[in-house]
Amino acid sequence: MKCLVGYVTKTGTTEEVAACIGQILQASGAEVEIKSIDSVSDVEAYDLLVLGSPINGMRVLPEFKAFLEGKVAGSGKLVDLFIVSYLYGPGRKIWKRAIRKELEQLKTLVKADSVEIVAGRLPQALPGAARFIFGTPRDLPLDTRDWDKIEAWAGSLARGTRT
């Protein structure tokens, strides 16, 4: 099985998550290419697309959505999406609902088999006003990624038992 683990990233966090997913798929015997979506001209050569974006403003990055609309929707490929959001876990319910709504639209657009939301990393602490608006605690670590969760999801993809 030839697999693309494609991503868009702003700070490198989503790229690191993509690399982890790709390594697990490779270890299961899949032929895997891990690359930024801006270097993907088409998806025809792949059997499985595992694609990821960070959340910014409660939405995926515009170039990610454009990639899904232009190259993935209607392709008939197996698709799994992962989204990286620092605020999703500890954030207020209103923000979680907005993110879930965005993801449901994307899942429908590309007929994704699964969508996984994983925690992210910030380069510096949020200012107090932002912590208040988003509902995050003061002592929240800058890196909240749960590598065990990421590895478990990637393992389910490798086994064909998407969660």
Write up what this structure looks like.
The structure is a single chain. This protein has 163 residues and is of the alpha/beta class. It has a single domain (2-159), classed as 3-Layer(aba) Sandwich (Rossmann fold). The chain is 39% helix and 21% strand. It has helices spanning 13-27, 62-72, 93-110, 128-134, 147-159; strands at residues 2-7, 31-36, 48-56, 59-60, 78-84, 114-118. Strands 1, 2, 3, 4, 5 and 6 form a six-stranded mixed β-sheet that branches. Helix 1 links the parallel strand 1 (2-7) and strand 2 (31-36). Helix 1 packs across helix 5 (147-159). The longest helix has 18 residues, at 93-110. The mean pLDDT is 92.
Architecture blueprint of SSEs:
Blueprint: E1 2-7, H1 13-27, E2 31-36, E3 48-56, E4 59-60, H2 62-72, E5 78-84, H3 93-110, E6 114-118, H4 128-134, H5 147-159
Parallel strand pairs: 1-2, 1-3, 3-5, 5-6
Antiparallel strand pairs: 3-4
